[in-house]
Amino acid sequence: MIPEVGMTFLRTQAASRHLMRWCLCLVTAASGACRSEGPQAERPEVPLASVPPPATEAPAELHGVGGVEGVTPAYDQSRQPARFVAALGLSPGQRIADVGAGLGYFTLRLSDAVGPTGRVVATDINDEALKRLRQRVSARKNVEVRKVAPDTPGLEPGTYDLILLAEVDHFLPDRAAYLESLRPALTPNGRIAVTHLRAMRPPLVAAAQAAGYAVVSEFNDLPVHYLLFLQPTPGP
Ligand SMILES: C[S@@+](CC[C@H](N)C(=O)[O-])C[C@H]1O[C@@H](n2cnc3c(N)ncnc32)[C@H](O)[C@@H]1O
């Protein structure tokens, strides 16, 4: 637990770096490295209190692909990967999709959580992120890294106990359509977990309702992120 005064300092420092990160995204959007130009795409109206992963020294094609655990303590403090993955309530043997995995900030922990009998499919649209993620998980037999198209999840039907969308929904061309397209990939009791900065929650919840999902539970104990779980609402 970080003392409140420490968090305030952290957030103040982070705000300017976060603004810089979004500016970098704007500059690199034209190259597709930080794609968010779809009709429903939106950027936070105010700098949000998240600590961004280091981006300034990274090549442009890696802007907007998230971070790697263990590189920046303040970033890890803001995302709390151990508590986050514990909150997903995973069991050994489960099948998980990590949509928009980026550099795999959560992928390795997901792999550990489902163990050798489970499976993690990590998807992304960014070639450089996919390449680096493949290198990071090369020794893990239960992880598959998969390139997908921006509007197509590329997930097998009836397969996934949990589909994670971590800091990715704002990139999607149409959130509601994308969520609808995820439904066939879920197992009968499967869930979709979505996490992002708290200010990004309202558009996601609206899209989820439009796509026929209900928020079935929520974890409210992360410093700056929401984490909610969706399941399809029963048909008529
Ligand atoms: C901010 S990063 C998040 C990475 C990681 N999930 C995390 O929580 O740190 C967003 C990632 O989503 C990917 N992405 C953007 N649009 C996507 C789409 N339509 N389908 C899959 N991945 C997408 C980007 O390439 C980027 O790697």
Automatic annotation (TrEMBL):
Locate the region Disordered.
36-57
In the record, biological process GO terms are: methylation
**GO molecular-function terms, A-Z:** methyltransferase activity
Keyword flag Methyltransferase = yes
Q: Does the keyword Transferase apply?
A: yes
Q: Which domain of life is it from?
A: Bacteria
Listed Pfam families: Methyltransf_12
Alphabetical list of CDD domains matching this protein: AdoMet_MTases
Please report the stretch or stretches of sequence annotated as the Methyltransferase type domain.
98-192
Q: Where is the signal peptide?
A: none
Keywords noted in UniProt: Methyltransferase, Transferase
Q: What is the designated name of this protein?
A: Class I SAM-dependent methyltransferase
Origin organism is Corallococcus terminator
Q: Identify the taxonomic lineage of the organism of origin.
A: Bacteria, Pseudomonadati, Myxococcota, Myxococcia, Myxococcales
